[in-house]
Amino acid sequence: MQGLITKSTGSWYQVRSGDETIDCRIKGKFRIKGITTTNPLAVGDLVDFDMEPEQGTGVITNLHQRKNYIIRKAINLSKQAQIIAANLDRALLVVTLASPRTSLGFIDRFLVTAEAYDIPACLIFNKLDLFSDEGLEILADYQAIYENIGYPCYSVSALEGTNIDKVRVLLKDKATLISGHSGVGKSSLINRLLPDLDLRTHMVSEWSDKGMHTTTFAEMFELPQGGYIIDTPGIRELGVIDIEKEVLSHFFPEMRERMNQCRFNNCRHINEPGCAVLDALEEGEIAQSRYNSYLSIYHGHDTRA
Ligand SMILES: Nc1nc2c(ncn2[C@@H]2O[C@H](COP(=O)(O)OP(=O)(O)OP(=O)(O)O)[C@@H](O)[C@H]2O)c(=O)[nH]1
Ligand SMILES: [Zn+2]
């Protein structure tokens, strides 16, 4: 049988197959070619499993090829790492320009990381209800920066429910990772999307009743309209990986599309003559804030605050 891992504790996996949810484990050693990780399987993985009719549980026998996956810490796969989730369709960052204001550096770092993982990213600007007309103009300016380089933006109020229907459409039938730093309203948004508030606590207690370890790595929640959201306890954002300086500009779409026109093919886009990126910056075609984030990440400054 085939199923989707929706929850993992490291020793037990909850597998969704058709309308059923089966608790599964792995028999013996389960090795996956090419990577060394502390956990072989993660939420979002598609697996094959056999039922153990007497116990009503399953044994996972095979992992399907992943289209992508995110890990904790380094993207350098020679190091031991923990896979947080696999097969993500989208990474969504909840931000706000109201307090506590999300810094553009934080947003850009998140987007770079999503690019490095090859996961399409999207920004949700929350707390729309707090903006005056002037504030709304500033909000529109920020959104234009990101929309122009291909990141869809949504303005919502999790508090009042404004534009939540648009987010629902976005999430339908997709596996979406939701991130955001503390205070932006991520929990409020998730509560809007998952009206069944008992869900989380229910699932945890059910597992501990059966004597299973309940330290979850990450969990997928099924949306009423179809699709899943992944909330990752313990990591509030995915902007934690290290990217080599030499390839950093590949993860800025507006730089990626111009760097073939730089005079030097090893151009760092910092002070080289004939740099197409610097020209575009001067022309106002590349946003200064985005370029500042590039420099900041390039020089190793922490923009996570
Ligand atoms: N005005 C306004 N306040 C909001 C909105 N969404 C959330 N808040 C408030 O912002 C605060 C943080 O909201 P949470 O949903 O707890 O935020 P979180 O991102 O999950 O943060 P943590 O719980 O700290 O992880 C709370 O006081 C919410 O009531 C919104 O759309 N408008
Ligand atoms: Zn250049």
Automatic annotation (TrEMBL):
Binds 1 zinc ion per subunit. Residues 67-238 form the CP-type G domain. Keywords: Cytoplasm, GTP-binding, Hydrolase, Metal-binding, Nucleotide-binding, Ribosome biogenesis, RNA-binding, rRNA-binding, Zinc. It is an enzyme of class 3 (hydrolase). One of several proteins that assist in the late maturation steps of the functional core of the 30S ribosomal subunit. Helps release RbfA from mature subunits. May play a role in the assembly of ribosomal proteins into the subunit. Circularly permuted GTPase that catalyzes slow GTP hydrolysis, GTPase activity is stimulated by the 30S ribosomal subunit. PROSITE patterns: ENGC_GTPASE, G_CP. The keyword Kinase does not apply. Belongs to the TRAFAC class YlqF/YawG GTPase family. RsgA subfamily. Its EC number is 3.6.1.-. The gene is rsgA. One of its GO terms (biological process) is ribosomal small subunit biogenesis. Zn(2+) binds at C262, C267, H269, C275. Its cofactor is Zn(2+). It holds the Pfam family RsgA_GTPase. NCBIfam families: ribosome small subunit-dependent GTPase A. Its main location: cytoplasm. Residues 86-236 form the EngC GTPase domain. It comes from the Bacteria. GO terms for molecular function: GTP binding; GTPase activity; metal ion binding; rRNA binding. One of its GO terms (cellular component) is cytoplasm. Monomer. Associates with 30S ribosomal subunit, binds 16S rRNA. It is found in: Cytoplasm. GTP binds at N126, K127, L128, D129, G180, H181, S182, G183, V184, G185, K186, S187, S188. This is Small ribosomal subunit biogenesis GTPase RsgA.
